[in-house]
Amino acid sequence: AQSVSQHNHHVILSEAASLELGCNYSYGGTVNLFWYVQYPGQHLQLLLKYFSGDPLVKGIKGFEAEFIKSKFSFNLRKPSVQWSDTAEYFCAVRRAPNNNDMRFGAGTRLTVKP
Amino acid sequence: GAVVSQHPSRVICKSGTSVKIECRSLDFQATTMFWYRQFPKKSLMLMATSNEGSKATYEQGVEKDKFLINHASLTLSTLTVTSAHPEDSSFYICSARDPSSGGYEQYFGPGTRLTVT
Q1: Does residue A97 sit in helix, strand or coil?
Q2: For residue range B26-72, what is the model confidence (pLDDT) as tens digits?
Q3: Given A45, A51, A104, which is nearest B44 (Cβ)?
Q4: Which residues of chain A are within 8 Å of residue B104 when distances are taken between CB atoms?
Q5: Quick check: A36 and A102 in contact, CB under 8 A?
Q6: Partner of B33 at 20 to 30 A CA spacing, among A40, B2, B27, B68?
Q7: CB-CB contact of B75 with B23 (8 Å)
């Protein structure tokens, strides 16, 4: 069965620290990849997505992610985090090109200390 | 971006009663909508996929007679939790897919917190 793994349950960083959140998936076919963010009390928002092309994708708020096909990974990065980045981050995978089956990772809670 | 709304945002009901949650796509037509359940400190679990005008497709382990889904129009889907029990207490999130976005973006509603007493 297709699965999505997020390695870190809770990450605590100080402001200006660099961030990398891991995401691996198990599906071997062509996939669409997503990172969503859920700020406290708010709904899921799309940070970035990868469908095809350049494996390094840039999203909103300074986030980027790199798709490494050989490693089945789609790690999220940000060079310098801010206190306002405190949130829950979810990686999601969907079989391409038009599959309804989007699977989410367990989520990583990011706490940024001011 | 596209907006998906849910109503109510919070609901408390007694065991044995039924609760209806509405999900609306406000500025696009959603041929496909999804219902997820999110447990505390857990990920989103897909419950069912609904296509406008047809029966919903439920994930394994989800009771279709307990979680009734109706996708009567291109902008509205409803989830009815029938004969609710305390273990049904959870955060329910709907998502709608915008086929006009090319990449078939999924937009998420703000969620509904259900508490069954």
Answers
A1: coil
A2: 988 888 899 999 887 678 899 999 988 888 999 999 999 999 999 88
A3: A104
A4: 98
A5: no
A6: A40
A7: no
